[in-house]
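User: What would this chain look like folded?
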Amino acid sequence: MSESIYGFINENSRVIDFFVVMDGDSLTSERLKEECGAHSYHKVVNPSKEILGAKEDQYWNGQRFIWDPPYPSWIFNDEINMWVPPIIPPAFDPENPKNYVWNEELLNWEEVSE
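Assistant: Here's the prediction, encoded as structure tokens.
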């Protein structure tokens, strides 16, 4: 039999923990669900894309596990597996290098002085 990774989530779809369970072993899955106080559990389909960073920063979006965005306005791009800003950052100019940070209040990039 093969094994799979399952993410156990609370009632708010936040990850409690990940466990490796033998495929088809629902008794173990249900026992782990009860022991960790999970609301439900879901199979991790693509571990290299779904299990990144601290589990406390991840949640189940109804299809897969993803992590929290750096800012509320950012959008998850499934193709590149990253959160992206709603506005593309300014292009880097090696002749006149500048640093920018995202301003969530203004929903735009701001130049920062060093």
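DSSP finds two helices and nine strands in the chain. If you want, I can go into more detail on any region.
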